[in-house]
Amino acid sequence: MTLKLYYHPLSSFCHKVLIALYENNTPFEPVMIDLGNAASRADLHRLWPVTKFPVLRDDAKDRTVPESSIIIEYLDLHYPGPTKLVPHDTDAANEMRLKDRFYDLHVQVPMQKIVGDRIRPADKRDPFGVEQARAALKTAIDMAEKDLAGRTWVMGDAFTLADCAAAPALFYADLVMPFTSTHKTVAAYFERLKARPSYARVLKEAEPFMQFFPRG
Fold first, then answer.
1. Does domain 3-78 have CATH number 3.40.50.720?
2. Distance of CA 105 to CAs 20, 26, 63, 136, 207, Å?
């Protein structure tokens, strides 16, 4: 198969790419990486020495593509489907990239700080850092509440790369700092995301692994 995705079913950034692949029924071979397994880790390291997933390998074009946003843009350019994930209009595409960065940097990053602290040894935890992360995450959800008002998707009527970013970011954010009772607009948008067939499939595939998510 031409495309291989090196990933893990629990990874939020892998969810982001899987949504894009499933949106357009793009054929690919999933290669699950277990970072705790030396051989599996070495496979990923050979492709991308940073040793972080997701990584897309395109054998037909002899290209290795890391980083979730770059992977989705690559797919949109070289393997387009019925869902145009990057707008044709330059200004709209730039706005979409800003929204993508917002969900990655201002929702995912503080969420991951909170989760990461849970798996640290008790004497290595960072209560102050977690407090800062919770404050940053609340600010981001407050901003999303205003930004999503009157919109079906992040960019309006069209489902884009920004929604691929928002779905896993909000899913895990709601697990660490629930927002559905306090942010009704974000909550309604989140329900639309979960009902989207592409993301519903991702969540279904992740279910067997959710037992390993540190819930506090």
1. no
2. 19, 27, 26, 10, 25
Torsion 74-79-84-85 (CA) sign: negative
Q: What pLDDT does 1 receive?
A: 63
Report yes or no: 143 and 105 within 8 Å, Cβ to Cβ.
Answer: no
90/92 Cα distance (integer angstroms): 5
Separation of alpha carbons 169 and 188, rounded Å:
15
Range(s) of the chain covered by CATH 1.20.1050.10:
90-196
Give domain 90-196's CATH architecture.
Answer: Up-down Bundle (1.20)
φ/ψ of residue 116, rounded to 5: -60, -35
Phi, psi of 8 (to 5 degrees): -135, 140
Q: Where in the chain is the domain with CATH 3.40.30.10?
A: 3-78
Sign of CA dihedral 149, 155, 156, 158: negative
pLDDT, one tens digit per residue, over 163-182 is: 999 999 999 999 999 999 99
| Rounded CA separation 66/51 (Å) | 10
Reduced to 3 states (helix: H, G, I; strand: E, B; else coil), residue 50 is coil
> What are the two backbone dihedrals, phi and then psi, of residue 53, each rounded to the nearest 5 degrees?
-105, 160
Q: Among candidates 169, 163, 51, 56, which has minimal Cα distance to 104?
A: 169
Digit-coded pLDDT (tens) for 41-83: 999 999 999 999 999 999 999 999 999 999 999 999 999 999 9
CA angle (145 as vertex; 139, 150 as ends), nearest 5: 155
